[in-house]
């Protein structure tokens, strides 16, 4: 454990120094070096590597916890009640460390031109977005996958430095993190309450209905990434699985009945293994 942070860990499945296809996954809100990390995030990296290896045996997957992810405040009634996750501070602070790790990954890989995919889940996608804005972008990254994203800090896929055709998005319809209101919507809504207004504040503040907390919705047509098929996931609360059950299923290859999302897991593996021709895509929001 770090004396000033929540711990750091980089765990790989497969050998990232020798495999042709390498992915690095950045987890998000609530992640810390604890038992939950070992059972959830490490398992996601393992599942991802196994699925990718089915398409190309020379594939590996890393879960990268090299930053202090925002934590869930015990007294917060909503996602936006967590002050840390409302801010870009953790993402901005962690982005240089991620880029340093990715540069090292590129330097140590024995292949002449390894295929590298950066994956950001939840708030981790905001860190990936911040990393792309450094000079030269994310070192060696060929593809970017954004999962359950609250926005990445840019409004267009082409701004992520790998070409918009190499940016892929998974956004479950029942994942509330992917539909958080934009900051202008929140301000407009609060103003409407204060002044007793009866207008639809969200429609005025976000007329295209494609902005979320950290910018343009990555699953929107305006953003311009490739959106791939994922399961809608359980409804928040009413399905008896907590406030954000659909937010945690993207990597899970188990059946939907078992709490997984095999379509999403297969699409993630296709990108990582360099087989984007196998993707199943769906319309933008």
Model description:
With 285 residues, the protein is an alpha/beta fold. It has a single domain (9-278), classed as 3-Layer(aba) Sandwich (Rossmann fold), CATH 3.40.50. The longest helix has 21 residues, at 35-55. The model is unreliable at 186-205 (pLDDT under 50). 29% of the residues lie in helices and 15% in strands. The chain has seven helices and nine strands. The chain has helices spanning 35-55, 83-86, 89-108, 123-132, 183-195, 201-205, 262-272; strands at 9-13, 21-26, 59-65, 115-121, 141-147, 167-170, 211-212, 215-216, 226-227. α1 (35-55) links the parallel β2 and β3 (59-65). α3 (89-108) packs across α4 (123-132).
In total, how many beta strands? 9
Structural class: alpha/beta
Helix content, binned percent:
25-40%
Whole-angstrom Rg: 18 Å
Q: Flag low-confidence runs.
A: 186-205
